[in-house]
Amino acid sequence: MIIQALLFIVSLLPLSQPATDVSLPNLNIKTTMSDNPYYSRTDTAKLNVDDEEWKKILDEEVFYIARKKGTERAFSGKYWDFEGIGTYYCAVCGNKLFKSDSKFGSSCGWPSFFEADRPNSVNYEEDYTFGMSRTEVLCGRCESHLGHIFDDGPPPTGKRFCMNSVVLDFEPDQEGSK
Ligand code: FE
């Protein structure tokens, strides 16, 4: 009888869960200024924080994408078809990354921009993983992985910064300001 009861309980447990799925869309809850001592929208000094420390601070999803170079599922993030007017900051460190006026409607399923806020907002690195040759985009302040850049963007730059919503924080413009 006990064994039958145990077997019944075991049969109710989920057998498997996808290992790489990032649960969306409730993200970035923990990455706020109050919880993250490195988060600043005004301090542009470079950070040198190791992953062990970031793991204690960041949400699991943010850590996975920012520090382990993960990718959110296409069309799953909160910004891929978002059209708010304002500024996008690094969700890890608060670095100013993109303005909404450089965002464009891309069919790729990730938020896409044709230029960064300023040249040193981001850094670039060659990425040869998964049998591809791509250019990785990293935060210029905290070196977190943001996404990749491609040459199929619209004018005036022809670039497409293909970003992960998870590592972006959007702040709307105040009414009347630009
Ligand atoms: Fe950053």
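^ fe (iii) ion complex. Residues 28-34+46-172 form a domain with the Metal Binding Protein, Guanine Nucleotide Exchange Factor; Chain A fold (CATH 2.170.150.20). Confidence is low (pLDDT under 50) at residues 6-31.
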